[in-house]
Amino acid sequence: MTMQIWRTLRGVPGWVYALVFAAAVFFAPMMGLDAANTRQVQLACILALVVSGLNLSLGYAGELALGQAAMYAAGAYTAGLLSQEGHTDIVVQLIAAGAVALIVGVITGIPGLRLGSWSLAMTSFFLILLVPDILAIFGGKTGGRNGLSGMEPPTFFGQDIGTDFYYVVAGVTIAWFVVMRNLVVSRHGIAFRTLKQSPVLARSQGVSVFRMKLLGYALGAIPAGLAGALFANTDLFIAPEAFGFTFATAVLAASILGGSASVYGAVLGAAIMQFGPNQSTAFQEYALVVYGGFLIVGGVLLSGGLTRLITAGRRWLDRKAGMNTPPVPAHGDPAAAVTVDPIDGAVLEVTDLSKSFGGNQALRSASLRAEPGRVTALIGPNGSGKTTMLNMICGFYTADAGTIAIGGTEVQRFSSHRVAREGVARTFQTPNIPEHVTVLEAVASGRYMTDRSSMLSAILRLPGYRRTARNDVAEAERVLESVGMSHLRDEVATSLPLGMRRMLEVARAVVAQPRVLLLDEIASGMDEDELVRLATLIRALRDAGATVLLVEHNFRLVLSLADTIIVLAQGEVIAQGPPAEIERHPRVLSEYLGIDPDGPEAAEVETLTR
Ligand SMILES: Nc1ncnc2c1ncn2[C@@H]1O[C@H](COP(=O)(O)OP(=O)(O)OP(=O)(O)O)[C@@H](O)[C@H]1O
């Protein structure tokens, strides 16, 4: 019975719950909520806005930045000063506050992000410490440490808002959360998560890490600015203490406690904070201690905050209700034909490439050429430089000497996201898949550079975005079908077994319609069926016109797939040619396979590979 109710509840789309909750918050005063609690909900909404900004930059873009308190101050003082000057319209104040906060975010974010590592955390931390001093310097206008008073009550197109101000706060908060939700579920949101987990993967998909992190931080400034304007109009008085270090810690604690990688975590964290410690005046003295406690509970004990706990509970109930389908082997005939749209492959030409790491010469004047419509395999013993070669083609390392050309364009000086934009897609030796995304989302994320669509169009759900999102899903479903994994589309991608995670990586690279496809040891961990599927897909890609460069230890697979084999040993190309030639090459037999070229084993290799 209980499980039946659970199944029914799970059948209701998630947005319905969000809508009901939003309506309950919006209409709370009409439904009889008293004035004191209405004020608490209003303050919780304002805090939730600030926390959501931190979630965008910390939880999604992976950058610990505490500057939200400063942007909150920027928004509040912008609204306050406008109000003093007689500009009481709340719409004007909100727009101005959001814009000023955005400018503060961009200006303070650039140096912090340029320096990399912990720099943004440090610069944003100092920004908070500077807020009271900056306000004191402009004391004539801001009232300095005494605070800014003399604000006029807010108006809406000339009408006094009065006690209806609550609806403005609730309305702005709900609107922002819709915007944020639209953003995080879009391809840009997945790109943020990818970036957080693996900047290397994000770059390989054409994402500019600096630009994206700045965008996350700067976008997070907007709700903080809006919250500032709303806060300033709540009591028509603001003072520097409201925006200091204690507030910044409260925001961080709420974010971590609620779950920073979650839209709803911001609401949950802010609500707990507002209805818990913030309500009591006796608590002020111990504020930092309590926030520290929340940080420990949220960050260390819960790891992922309360939303993660809720998700785990939901999964547990799903399992109890028999709703979880455990990953099962791939569906369908592994050898079934796969159709791939024609691909405009590009010639990959590497000439005299050298690279050393300290005294270790990983590549010595190595050259290779991979052509469209052909599978070129790169083989060699462990440590011979194969992965280094792929990493250099992708722009992860700079060359000591030599050139790399894709379709005639020299790319050896390009940053890795620019190489990706030239049409290079790759898989990784250790599968690199963002956490908490579904199989379908993970595969579709490979299309980030295909059919580009702006963040604004994603936020506003414009027709262009809807079309791109539809194409992303259709294309990802099609490729998943061809690798027999379409039934796993809604599984958590990282929960798949190794062979399937590798296949997922191949699918993710394929949806990008790459002109050059680099596959790094994808066969290890795959079972026989998966190997057949993989071979079928690679042949289909080749026949569609892609340039495939395959780094592989599975010699049998290499011999059955490759048109040309290039053999590396100690960073040097020691042999290249068609499979029939390579399998008899004495140096390949002795250095790669460790077989005496004249012994009986050499003949065995030939029969094995027939
Ligand atoms: N980032 C790095 N820093 C220092 N040395 C490196 C780095 N990357 C590779 N090397 C060294 O370069 C040499 C070539 O390594 P690489 O990983 O390219 O070989 P590989 O042929 O791909 O080996 P495997 O088959 O084991 O993956 C090795 O000696 C390795 O230790």
In summary, what is this structure?
This protein has helices spanning 2-11, 14-26, 35-60, 68-84, 90-115, 119-137, 139-142, 165-185, 187-197, 199-204, 209-235, 245-258, 263-275, 287-301, 305-320, 386-393, 416-421, 439-444, 455-459, 463-482, 498-510, 528-544, 555-561, 579-582, 586-592, 600-609; strands spanning 155-156, 159-160, 348-357, 360-370, 374-379, 401-406, 409-410, 424-426, 516-520, 547-551, 564-569, 572-577. By secondary structure, the protein is an alpha/beta fold. α3 crosses α12.
Measured distance between first and last alpha carbons: 60 Å
| Low-pLDDT regions | none
Biggest beta sheet attributes: 6 strands, mixed
Number of strands: 12
Strand content: 5-15%
Which word captures the global form?
elongated
List the helices and strands and how they pair.
Blueprint: H1 2-11, H2 14-26, H3 35-60, H4 68-84, H5 90-115, H6 119-137, H7 139-142, E1 155-156, E2 159-160, H8 165-185, H9 187-197, H10 199-204, H11 209-235, H12 245-258, H13 263-275, H14 287-301, H15 305-320, E3 348-357, E4 360-370, E5 374-379, H16 386-393, E6 401-406, E7 409-410, H17 416-421, E8 424-426, H18 439-444, H19 455-459, H20 463-482, H21 498-510, E9 516-520, H22 528-544, E10 547-551, H23 555-561, E11 564-569, E12 572-577, H24 579-582, H25 586-592, H26 600-609
Parallel strand pairs: 5-10, 5-11, 8-9, 9-10
Antiparallel strand pairs: 1-2, 3-4, 3-6, 6-7, 11-12
Helix pairs in contact: 3-8, 3-11, 3-12, 3-13, 4-5, 4-6, 4-11, 5-6, 5-11, 8-11, 12-13, 12-14
Adenosine-5'-triphosphate (ATP) is lined by residues 357, 360, 362, 380, 382-388.
